[in-house]
Amino acid sequence: MVGRQLDERIVARFPLGRRLKVLDVGMGRGAQALRLARAGHDVTGVERDPDGLSAVRAAVAAEPEGIRSRMRIVEGDGRDTGVHFLPGSFDVVLCHGVLMHVEEPDALLAGLGRMLAPGGLLSLVVRNADALAMRPGLRGDWAGALASFGADTYRDAAGTEVRAHRLDAVGQALAGIAAPLVSWYGVRLFSEAVDVPEPGPALEALLAAEERAGRTEPYRRVATLLHLCGGRD
Questions:
Q1: Residue 99: CB partners within 8 Å, gap ≥ 6?
Q2: For residue 157, is pLDDT > 80?
Q3: Over residues 102-127, mean pLDDT
Q4: Helix (H) or strand (E) run with residue 54 in it
Q5: Number of other residues whose CB lies within 10 A of the CB of residue 91
Q6: Residue 88: is its pLDDT beyond 80?
Q7: Fewer C-beta neighbours within 10 Å, C or N terminus of the chain?
Q8: The domain 2-231 belongs to what CATH superfamily?
Q9: Other beta carbons less than 10 A from residue 189's beta carbon
Q10: For the chain, which residues make up each domain, given as ranges?
Q11: Is the pTM of this model over 0.85?
């Protein structure tokens, strides 16, 4: 879903067929980075987790030479982009599922903004603090749902307390780094309440419903995650 949304914003912002310079901060196992490299873009990924690095390096090694040549992997912390790259070096900057794990997200966000070239696009995925009660509620965890109202943190799958973010606050932060919010989507609403099916017609139907909900009021406001895109003039 995030990939489709990102493609939509890229098509809306850049000339068709332009090869973009993309930075993926906290690339994980490289799903988005590889997808964009396959689409013809030059992609640099930053990751510090050893397991993630091992997985993405193996995935890149399995690609054809034309795609491998468009991928660069940097082992490092997303907060140190200024050490590795010059300001304004990238047309598109991704930071998906990272801000919730950072003690000073505003500093990281400012660093990401400095990487954007004029006309660039910044893509963020964060946990939706305005709907923290939805996930435990949909799973029948009523104590967890009640504890989530008004909260700004939650426990991830590993049991670590991490932060959630509010749409208005992230929008203000994007304006503060001269990359004001141009669009936003909800991610993962219905899939929190069901077992995700194997690939096939049932999965395609679920994804179609998720995609529609993610761009439709009022559903997108209660999604588990928010996908926010800021644009540099």
A1: 105, 108, 109, 124, 126, 163, 165
A2: no
A3: 94
A4: helix 50-61
A5: 24
A6: yes
A7: C
A8: Vaccinia Virus protein VP39 (3.40.50.150)
A9: 24
A10: 2-231
A11: yes
